[in-house]
Amino acid sequence: MVANPPIDEIHFSMEPDVENVPGPRTEQLLERQQEIDSNAVAYPRRIPVALKDAKGATIRDVDGNTFLDFFAGIGVLNVGHSNPYVLDGVHEQLDEITHTVDFPTEARIEFIERLNDIAPDGLAGKSKVVFGGPSGSDAIEGSIKLAKHNTGRHGLLAFEGSYHGTTAGALSLTAGKAYKEGYGPLLADAVHVPFPYSSEPGPSGDVETFCPSENCCQDGTCARALDAVQRKFEGSYGGHESPAGIWVEPIQGEGGVVVPPAGFLEGLRDIADDNDALLIFDEIQTGFGRTGEWFAAEHWDVTPDAMTMAKGIGGSGLPIGAMMYHERYDTWGPGGHVGTFRGNAPAFVGGIRAIEYIESHDLLAHAREVGSYIRSRFRELAEEAPEITDVRGKGQFTGVEFEVDGEPSKSLVEAIQRECYHRGVLVWYAGRHKSVLRLLPPLVLTQQQAEVGMDIITDSIRGVLADHDR
């Protein structure tokens, strides 16, 4: 069965149409929001848009301006805004039942079965799925409990540059100090070691000692990271007991779309196995097709013991958090992990329909092709713009790093983001210094939209750099 309509029919248009943004109605709503909403509201401070409706990879504001969306709700809307095939199923489910806790429903069972169908090798056919709260942070909390319960240890190991959420346990794993300020103490014995990052210097010399691959890439930052992980487990002066698990994003998102070297995840797999620890992949941002594979783990053929999921798995932006883990770790008794909203039946259907839509339109291959095109445009621009120091990513997950006079430039990325907004393309940022332009378009972004969007983004970068040089 073909999941209609095709991707070129689900958008408002193939190009943006904006003038005088923000418009008067948008400004009114932004002012009203500021008066009554929490001071924690963040996104409108960077992109002053008041939303009305959205389709595919396009958004309209309340003043009638149409934008191309290159961040998709921060990686949530993988099959696009208001995808008709997904919403038809969701609407049908809404008329039947919505909240089911963990009682069996056709939607729940089928969704778990479909997740199993697309699981990485090593988990497919050998896994269990647990739903808890509706967010990625909730899924991370469940993974912490799983690791502690199965190892009897309480230490946690994560990486510099990581982002895993902002509830207490997830925040303990998150590396950014700004997220934690004023909220300590958090979980004890949560440690962070370096993540391989080409923009930072690594050790020289014999790095092959730390590499599990036959063909070592000679990346010193990878050697440094694996050595640090191993010492936390096996060093007699590591400072605490061996961790219960290793938590890692296969590609760091908030950290700047940082893609690790080939042997890194394999090395973590070996260390976890040698020390009876769980290897847990945070696939909340990288999963569900974002990187051109169902899960980013597949790029390196490394199977985690557990992986956390959220964001795109609800299909249409409906909130659902989940964790898939190997069946040997299914040691919980009834009620071992719970959450009131672990039975969001419309989200289950949304996820099922999203899988069907991705399969029907071969969106994994499409994401790889269009994402490669986007990165090629940035690399072409880098030949004339030395401020672009790195272009990286996989699938529809791209990061572009900027420096000025040898230093990461947050202000430059902010100016580029503003200029793109005024020209009708919505982009976001990331990175340890907020100096990385981060693109997460829906997988349904067409080649034509990618070309139009990249014309605008690259022209915006040229304009901002020209102003900066004056």
TrEMBL record:
Cofactors named for this entry: pyridoxal 5'-phosphate
Highest taxon above the source species: Archaea
Gene Ontology terms for molecular function: identical protein binding; pyridoxal phosphate binding; transaminase activity
Keywords: Aminotransferase, Pyridoxal phosphate, Transferase
Family matches, as SUPFAM superfamilies: PLP-dependent transferases (SSF53383)
Keyword DNA damage belongs to the record: no
Family: Belongs to the class-III pyridoxal-phosphate-dependent aminotransferase family.
Protein name, UniProt field: Aspartate aminotransferase family protein
